[in-house]
Amino acid sequence: MLFLQLFWVYIKIGLFGFGGGYAMLSLIQDEVVNKYKWISLQEFTDVVAISQMTPGPIGINSATYIGYTAVHNAGYSAGISILGSCIATFAVCLPSFILVLLISYYFNRFKRNKYVEAAFIGLRPATVGLIAAAALLLMNQENFIDYKSFLIFGAAFLLTWKLKIHPILMIFLAGIAGIILYW
After folding, report:
1. 21-28 and 58-73 helices cross at what angle (nearest 10)?
2. CA atoms of 6 and 3, how far apart (whole Å)
């Protein structure tokens, strides 16, 4: 039953997660933390942080981790838990894979269609809104935000925006700042 739930949850997330992984975060949190309680809010925050730092899309990385953790926390062995991560990862990718196949087949026919263009224009601000909602979801009691956090955020924002610092270097610098400020 757990494997079917994982598949169903991540099919829904993959199907309705327009805007990429960050836009999916609110859906993921609602399903895996609030509804099914597979992981805690603190674990979810950790998953987001780890998924951002590891190669690959955040939605897929989090699906892999949460699929494993949900099955492992249910009392299954590590081998069976890997199956849970595979199911969640496959399910979150499947809708996008099918959609990209369909779009690539029909795109040249409809790319100049005024309704298709209007739909894409409408999706842009919704995507920005979903990403902003994901940022707000991460501002919770588990992520105590103090002046040091704002200092790191502000510095990271300005250094990335104005000086175009590479994201990997920014992650490294933020880690060092965290060690200095919180140790």
Report:
1. 30
2. 5
The angle, 0 to 180 degrees and rounded to 10, between the axes of the packed helices 58-73 and 41-53 is 140
Cα angle, residue 59 at apex, residues 40 and 54 outer, rounded to 5°: 90
Q: How far is CA 8 from CA 26, 32, 95, 147, in A?
A: 17, 12, 12, 40
In the DSSP assignment, the letter for residue 82 is H
Of the candidates 32, 127, 35, the residue with the CA atom closest to the CA atom of residue 85: 32
One-letter amino acid of 107: F
The model's pLDDT over 26-43, given as tens digits with 9 standing for 90+, comes to: 889 999 999 999 999 888
Question: Of 51, 52, 53, nearest to 85 (Cα)?
Answer: 51
Tokens of 179: 């060690």
pLDDT digits (tens, 9 = 90+) for 1-24: 999 999 999 999 988 876 677 778
Provide the residue ranges of all domains of the chain, joining segments of one domain with +: 2-143, 145-183
